[in-house]
Amino acid sequence: MNICWNRIRLALVALACIALTGCDWVLLDSKGMVGIAQRDLILICIGLMLIVVVPAIVLTFVFAWRFRAGNTKAKYTPDWSHSTKVEVVVWGVPLLIIAVLAVIVWKSTHELDPYKPLDVAGEPLHVDVIATDWKWVFVYPDLGIATVNQLNFPANRALAFNITSNSTMNTFFIPQLGGQIYAMAGMRTQLHLIANEPGQFRGMSGNYSGHGFSNMKFIATASSNEDFDRWVAEVRSAPDALSFAQFKALAAPSKNAPVQHFSSVEPLLFKKVIDQFIGVGENTAAAAPAGTAAGAQVSQE
């Protein structure tokens, strides 16, 4: 009977291992400067913590075996209660690791600040990201175009995202390029990313927001400058324009929304989405940063 249960356990472990082979390690397969830095930070922190974890696990089995009841060769010292050497190792090593981790994390926290522009050559591509129920609207304020559930940009060019929500809280997340940032109604959050090479990367919301949340996904495509210019020309040939009224209709709850292109966008659309929740005219500068076409228009008001 015991042999039968052991076989069942081994079979379950084998099935679990087979199932794990289907997992996609997107967080460790980073394709952008920010994502690579975050991946390295994760691996370094795990490696440092394993300096304590691995010996603790190994010694647990060693002690259990060495001091088992049947081992008459093991030294029996019932009155032992203290060892300075053991105390130094048990407390000193973890404290040293914590100190090293503190320095690394403090430094990385400032270097990987999502609001901090990337130190790369060239002007960033500005994209306004608006989360709705349950789709993503991407507005390119400098290009005067917009898309739904499709994000295209040139590889090796910095991306400056301004993020908000037209409804419930979501998170804007492209795992292979960098960390996720919350999209919240009436607020503007920021994120700076870059793709080091051309490719297609999965984008999603990492925060549950209702019935259509599981399909709130998009494809982020990094391409050459030439291919990006062709894509922009294709979007500009679309028959539809995105006015604020059109956006309100578009933002109505829907699932599995198809990709849509808009050849023009109402000025300050991103600001107007935010103003719905904070009052018209308030926090105007926060809605459109300087350096974008929208920001320039805001500064003139």
From TrEMBL:
GO biological process: ATP synthesis coupled electron transport
Recorded superkingdom: Eukaryota
TM helices/strands, residue ranges: 41-67, 88-106
Cytochrome oxidase subunit II copper A binding domain ranges (all copies): 122-234
Catalysed reaction, written as an equation: 4 Fe(II)-[cytochrome c] + O2 + 8 H(+)(in) = 4 Fe(III)-[cytochrome c] + 2 H2O + 4 H(+)(out)
One MF term in the entry's GO annotations: oxidoreductase activity, acting on diphenols and related substances as donors, oxygen as acceptor
GO CC field: plasma membrane
Signal peptide extent: none
Cofactor(s) the protein needs: Cu cation
PROSITE patterns, per the entry: COX2_CUA, COX2_TM, PROKAR_LIPOPROTEIN
Pfam families (UniProt xref): COX_ARM (PF06481)
Keywords: Cell membrane, Electron transport, Lipoprotein, Membrane, Oxidoreductase, Palmitate, Respiratory chain, Signal, Transmembrane, Transmembrane helix, Transport
Primary site of residence: membrane
Localization per Swiss-Prot or TrEMBL: Cell membrane
InterPro entries: CcO_II (IPR045187), CcO_II-like_C (IPR002429), COX_ARM (IPR010514), Cupredoxin (IPR008972), CuRO_UO_II (IPR034227), Cyt_c_oxidase_su2_TM_dom (IPR011759), Cyt_c_oxidase_su2_TM_sf (IPR036257), Cyt_o_ubiquinol_oxidase_su2 (IPR006333)
Bilayer topology annotation: Multi-pass membrane protein
The keyword DNA-binding appears for this protein: no
Residues of the Cytochrome oxidase subunit II transmembrane region profile domain: 19-116
Record family assignment: Belongs to the cytochrome c oxidase subunit 2 family.
Protein name, entry field: Cytochrome c oxidase polypeptide II
